[in-house]
Design brief:
- By secondary structure, the chain is of the alpha/beta class.
- Helix content is about 45%, strand content about 10%.
- The chain has 2 domains: about 140 residues, Glutaredoxin; about 130 residues, no CATH class.
- Helix 8 packs across helix 9 and helix 8 packs across helix 11.
Length: about 300
């Protein structure tokens, strides 16, 4: 198997995988004292950035990344609750905060209304570019937006978002499709690994084939946008607010269950329907964020 991690995506930039249930539900533990606080207001909501004195110099970069994330995550709505962003001074402190050890690639992690991020000054000798930091925070703040658009502070963990939707939405919103294996490469993986399912059962693949997991999530979510438009995604999120789970809301909006959808997506990939001229044109529209009309202007897709 091609080493996609080495050729497509630096390990240091991998976002937190929300597939780990304990990571999602975990509470901050043994956080360092963050003595300083800056308040930010953007077009999508408000943020409180907490940090320690040594990180004062990186706060303008964090603020710029938060501001940069606004237009992208704003396509899904407004944040209903302020988000607390805790800038942690080292990788070790980040792992302690999320109660996970040995995740060298971890740089940030988000929940309903808080995000932990490892200080850019502790990313390595060179550190991230501003574009890389923007991309990371857009990815993570998309998680906050997704949870807040679909639930409240007490129910977000119970909604049952599948990984392909969670990580696919964050990757799509932050424009990370270029980092992952292409649809053709995903099709080849499915052919050569018939017993593996990076869409429905991603956890066994996570450690050794995480790029394939992210590829499947990104392309599955893009396929959903191709069929339903971004407005359809918003409808799914809003349908969950009164109490329904992800599966119930998904069926209510799309007319099929999530399992049927992922089966159809898998067929779409395996049959390489993405090669047709109509699909290629529609996929380019999705990638460019031009498919916000509910899918009406996109080619008809067999359900």
């Amino acid at each position: 198997m091609k080493d996609f991690a080495a050729t497509r995506r630096p390990r240091a930039l991998r976002p937190a995988m929300a597939v780990i249930a304990g990571l999602l539900a975990g509470c901050a533990a043994h956080l360092p004292q963050l003595q300083r606080r800056e308040l930010l207001t953007t077009q999508v909501g408000s943020f409180a950035v907490e940090y320690s004195d040594p990180d004062e110099g990186v706060i303008p970069r964090i603020a710029q990344a938060v501001e940069s994330a606004g237009p992208a995550i704003g396509r899904w709505g407004q944040l209903s609750s302020p988000v607390r962003i805790e800038v942690l001074p080292s990788h070790e402190s980040l792992e302690k905060a999320v109660d996970r050890q040995g995740y060298d690639w971890l740089r940030a992690w988000a929940r309903y209304d808080e995000m932990f991020v490892q200080s850019p000054r502790a990313w390595g000798f060179i550190g991230p570019t501003q574009a890389e930091l923007n991309e990371l925070l857009t990815h993570e703040l998309t998680h906050c937006m997704m949870y807040q658009q679909s639930s409240d502070r007490h129910s977000w963990l119970a909604k049952g978002f599948p990984l392909w939707f969670r990580e696919g939405m964050a990757s799509y919103t932050s424009g990370q499709g270029y980092r992952w294996p292409t649809l053709e490469e995903l099709a080849r993986f499915l052919e050569t690994h018939p017993k593996e399912d990076p869409i429905r059962d991603p956890e066994p693949l996570y450690q050794g084939e995480s790029d394939i997991v992210y590829s499947a999530a990104h392309h599955a979510f893009s396929y959903l946008v191709l069929r339903q438009g971004e407005s359809g995604v918003i409808q799914i999120l809003h349908a969950m607010q009164p109490g329904p789970s992800f599966g119930e809301a998904f069926r209510q909006v799309t007319g099929i269950g999530p399992d049927d959808f992922t089966t159809q997506f898998k067929q779409y990939v395996e049959e390489r329907r993405f090669r047709s001229a109509g699909y290629r044109s529609a996929l380019r529209m999705v990638a460019a964020g031009l498919s916000r009309s509910g899918g009406r202007s996109l080619p008809s897709i067999a359900r």
